[in-house]
């Protein structure tokens, strides 16, 4: 089992943009200042895509077993979305099977004393593709309702305070009126809430933000398979369903408050770190790798492990839990 972590650390203000991609990413900056007090360790497993095929449930269990067997265990877990393999284009019976697998593994592998918060992913919206899922839109669990009822949430976005830090969990998925398409962005009521939440947070309280889709990510340029990449095109395009199209607006909003330190995401199944305007954006690799078919490019199956410090700094490790894909 390869437990060698990769590190990315907050503090590259002068560089403007830094990148650590793949499972062997190297340190980007020095550790928190000598004497800085660590106040919390939490785990960020994302894109679990649990399923019975290809030993997906066993793989998810192996990930959480690894996490809970660490000598220095996380005191909190925040998942990054895409929890079942897919409920967006899957009929209700199959979606229920996947949700049941997800909750069973968590119940079996994570002690009840460890709090867990969940982020919504695009595959967690039941019936998003009505034709493929054979839904009408009138089902009791349709859309985001299944996710909300599964965890007893009132909304798919929320915030809380812990260990002197403020945690904000966002819903990246803005569904378009027609069809099953979506754009990654924060709009309407959620945007109003986010602005108010940031305003209510004291300026000396450091903030970590969670979204399923990356707010910023360099790994998007490696997301497509090689045969899909057009080397002759004059434009480098990122799909609106792969990264937040409102990244400039969110950057300006975060900078106006001055205490957003870290933004964590998933969605791409690739690992990268970029630092822009003093804010670190980390896209963690997937628990499922390439949906239980092995590594996604150079990023092995894994999860994020983050240490938060009282001075507003942090350390991030990407933990490869040693899973070998089933044939």
Write the layout of secondary structure elements.
Elements: E1 6-9, E2 38-44, H1 56-68, E3 76-79, H2 92-109, E4 116-118, H3 130-133, H4 145-151, E5 158-162, E6 165-169, E7 173-175, E8 182-184, H5 188-200, E9 207-210, H6 247-257, E10 260-265, E11 272-276, E12 279-283, E13 302-309, E14 314-320
Parallel strand pairs: 2-3, 3-4, 6-9, 9-10, 10-12
Antiparallel strand pairs: 1-14, 2-13, 5-6, 7-8, 11-12, 13-14
Q: Would you write up a description of this structure?
A:
The protein is of the alpha/beta class and 327 residues long. It has a single domain (6-221, 238-320), classed as Purple Acid Phosphatase, chain A, domain 2 (4-Layer Sandwich). The protein has helices at residues 56-68, 92-109, 130-133, 145-151, 188-200, 247-257, and strands at 6-9, 38-44, 76-79, 116-118, 158-162, 165-169, 173-175, 182-184, 207-210, 260-265, 272-276, 279-283, 302-309, 314-320. The strands form three sheets. The protein has a six-stranded mixed β-sheet, with no helix packed on it. Helix 6 (247-257) links the parallel strand 9 (207-210) and strand 10 (260-265). Helix 1 packs parallel to helix 2.
Summarize the structure.
The chain has helices at 56-68, 92-109, 130-133, 145-151, 188-200, 247-257; strands at 6-9, 38-44, 76-79, 116-118, 158-162, 165-169, 173-175, 182-184, 207-210, 260-265, 272-276, 279-283, 302-309, 314-320.
């Amino acid at each position: 089992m390869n437990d060698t972590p990769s590190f990315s650390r907050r503090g590259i203000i002068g560089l403007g943009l830094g990148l650590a991609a793949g499972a062997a990413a190297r340190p980007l900056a020095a550790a928190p200042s000598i004497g800085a007090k660590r106040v919390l360790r939490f785990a960020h497993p994302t894109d679990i895509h649990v399923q019975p095929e290809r030993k997906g449930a066993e793989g998810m269990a192996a990930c959480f077993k690894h996490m809970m067997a660490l000598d220095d265990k996380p005191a909190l877990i925040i998942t990054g979305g895409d929890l079942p393999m897919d409920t967006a284009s899957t009929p209700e019976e199959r979606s229920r099977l996947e949700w049941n697998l997800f909750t069973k593994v968590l119940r079996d592998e994570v002690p009840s004393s460890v709090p867990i918060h969940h982020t919504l992913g695009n595959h967690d919206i039941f019936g998003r593709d009505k034709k493929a899922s054979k839904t009408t839109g009138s089902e009791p669990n349709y859309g985001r309702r299944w996710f909300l009822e599964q965890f007893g949430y009132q909304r798919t976005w929320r915030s809380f305070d812990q260990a002197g830090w403020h945690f904000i969990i966002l819903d990246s998925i803005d569904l378009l009126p027609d069809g099953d398409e979506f754009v990654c962005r924060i709009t309407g009521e959620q945007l109003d809430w986010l602005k108010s939440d940031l305003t209510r947070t004291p300026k000396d309280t450091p903030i970590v933000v969670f979204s399923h889709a990356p707010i910023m990510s360099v790994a998007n340029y490696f997301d497509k398979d090689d045969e899909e990449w057009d080397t002759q095109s004059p434009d480098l395009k990122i799909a609106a369903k792969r990264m937040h199209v409102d990244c400039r607006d969110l950057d300006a909003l975060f900078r106006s408050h001055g205490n957003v330190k870290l933004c964590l995401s998933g969605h791409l199944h690739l690992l990268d770190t970029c630092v822009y305007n003093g804010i670190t954006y980390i896209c963690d690799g997937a628990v499922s790798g390439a949906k239980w078919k092995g590594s996604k490019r150079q990023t092995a199956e894994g999860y994020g492990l983050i240490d938060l410090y009282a001075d507003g700094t942090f350390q991030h490790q990407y933990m490869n839990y040693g899973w070998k894909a089933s044939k």
